[in-house]
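Exercise: predict the fold of this chain.
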Amino acid sequence: MLVQKSEQIYTDLSSFTALTNLLTNGVNSIRPLVAETLDGNAFITYNIRFNGLLAKGSTTDFQVAIQSWSENYNTSLAIADQVENALGESNNYYTYLSAEPKFSEQGQIYTEQIFNIKK
């Protein structure tokens, strides 16, 4: 099920042109978990979490954390806005839980967003 959810996220993000146009290498700048140097300065990483059944009949046992990386704060937020739009336009169902801009130890700026993935 994790592979299926990961492929779903990639498909939903990579098929949204307004998002991929902001990334250094378009769809090639969307990576699960770890990016590569060749991905450029504007890219996305994501990871899937399985939380177990939150409650009887739960529809939100999977979450996705998406990190929108960029050289500056405003571009990171612009990418994150398009991530939200991409998931909102998807045929799959997501609930937006949180977003937080961050600064890595390597001096990189990113915005991390958390979404529930509904069945």
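Check your answer against the key: Strands lie at 30-32, 43-50, 62-70, 93-103, 109-118.
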